[in-house]
């Protein structure tokens, strides 16, 4: 289990956070999610591929890149 | 039936528009709703009191005033 950080573009409010939380939460293996519209930071803990996380963020209507 | 315009504070995105649309849409007598996060403008057509519209906007988590 690892914790990966992503930088999300386009979130403006709590509804945006919720949309991303919902989509990423549907990925099997995700244990915990932290997401902030203020910083654009998305932190995902679990056993999950970057590609799945990035696809889920896109599904929610935003774009993201893996952070350092 | 009249069309009234309101200025809403705090909408940032399409999710915000949807929240307001849902709450205002629950008011009996509302025929049509136009809402824009970009301009903050909410236009409600129907037979409905200002007070009900303003309360619905507050219920959605925003504030509004009747426009001219």
TrEMBL record, chains A, B:
Domain HMA residue range list: 2-65
Claim: Transit peptide is one of the keywords in the record: no
Annotated Pfam families: HMA (PF00403)
Species this chain originates from: Rothia endophytica
Protein keywords: Metal-binding
Gene3D superfamilies registered for this protein in UniProt: 3.30.70.100
Statement: the UniProt record of this protein carries the keyword Metal-binding: yes
Protein name: Heavy-metal-associated domain-containing protein
